[in-house]
Each structure stands twice: as C-alpha cells, then as structure tokens.
Amino acid sequence: MNDQIHNIQNARIHIKELQKAIDSNMQKICLLESQIHGLLKIRQSSTIPIKGISKINFVPINQIQYFKANQSYTNVITEKHNIILATKSIREFETLLGDYFFFKINKSVLINTHKIHSFDKKSNQIIMNNNDSFEIARRRKCDFLNVIDNILK
Questions:
Q1: Strands 109-112 vs 102-106: parallel, antiparallel or unpaired
Q2: Is 33 helix (H, G, I), strand (E, B) or coil?
Q3: How far apart are CA 94 and CA 76, in angstroms?
Q4: pLDDT for 111-138, tens place per residue?
Q5: Which of 48, 50, 128, 133 has the smallest CB count inside 10 Å?
Q6: What is the structure's pLDDT at 139?
Q7: Cβ within 8 Å of residue 106, ≥6 positions away
Q8: Please, how many CA atoms are within 13 Å of residue 73, restricted to the half-sphere of its CB?
Q9: What pLDDT, on a 0 to 100 scale, did the predictor assign at position 41?
Q10: What is the C-alpha to C-alpha distance for residues 63 and 8, in angstroms, rounded to an integer?
Q11: How crowded is residue 8: how many other Cβ atoms within 10 Å of its Cβ?
C-alpha cells in the first residue's frame, strides 16, 4: 500500500514538472509568434521602424548601409550618411534583418551586403558604398564569403 501511495505522489510530482515545462514552452511559443508577426510586418513593407529615444524613424531597408553597436544602443547609418540612434541592440537588428542580406561581420557591425563597394581578401577589409571601411573578424570570413557567393549566384 505504501508503494502505491509513493508511486501516486511521484506521478503527481512528475505531472507538476511536466505542467511547468509545458507552461514555459507555451510562453516561448508566444514570444516566437510575436517575433514572427513582427518579422512578417517588416517583410510586407520595405521600411523598418527604428525606435529612438525621442521618436520613431521609418527607414527604407535598402537605404541602410550598416548598423554599428553603441553600448546598449545601435547607430543606424544610411546612404545619406544620416546616423540614427536606435534603442534596440545590434543582435535584435541581426535577427530582424537576417533575410535581407544583412551580415554581422564582427561583434559590433552588421552590414547591408548590397551596399559593399569592395572586399580585400588579404587585409579582410570591407569598404562600403559610402567609403566607410571595416575589418571582418577572422572567424566570420568564411561565412561571409559563402554569403557573397550565394548573392553572386
């Protein structure tokens, strides 16, 4: 009889643990659904809302040269050399714009690969259309070359 009571108690504990895991996964699913909804909104439009400290700028995606980390903020640099201070991290922009040919070349710079002017393989230097240049991290070079190869195909 004690074994049956013990088994029932263990089963209840396992059920509670499973319920916690289910609840946690449901929260993650809800978060992912909201992120997907946000991505779909951006894909349907050719602009991206960039929330700053005092206003929201709506910037055409094809006019963004690159994003540069600025502590917990991000500088968004456009073709016209405008710099917009965004309240999102560079990682958030990387997630949002990964399907738009943006590539993170090092820990602080996310570039629009359609705005590259040239790439020097020996020095690992990328020069953008606006003449800004960046060094690509050694560990990112192979992935970068694969992305470029895919664009060229």
A1: antiparallel
A2: helix
A3: 12
A4: 999 899 999 988 989 999 999 999 999 9
A5: 133
A6: 92
A7: 134, 135, 136, 137, 140
A8: 12
A9: 58
A10: 63
A11: 10
Q: What is the DSSP letter of 34?
A: H
CA distance linking residue 151 with residue 149, whole number of Å: 5
Beta-carbon count within 10 A of 31 CB:
10
Kindly indicate the confidence band of residue 39, based on its pLDDT and cuts at 50, 70 and 90. Answer: low
Compute the C-alpha angle 66/70/71, nearest 5°.
145
pLDDT, tens digit, for every residue of 84-103?
999 999 999 998 887 778 99
Contacts of 86 (CB under 8 A, 6+ apart): 50, 51, 52, 67, 73, 74, 75, 76, 93
In Å, how far from its chain's centre is CA 26? 22
pTM of the model: 0.68
**CA-wise closest residue to 135 among 108, 153, 98, 99:** 108
pLDDT digits (tens, 9 = 90+) for 44-75: 558 889 998 899 999 999 899 999 999 889 99
> Which tokens in the block code for residue 111?
């570039």
Listed in sequence order, the DSSP H helices in the chain are 2-44, 90-97, 138-152
- What's the first-to-final CA gap in the chain, in angstroms? 71
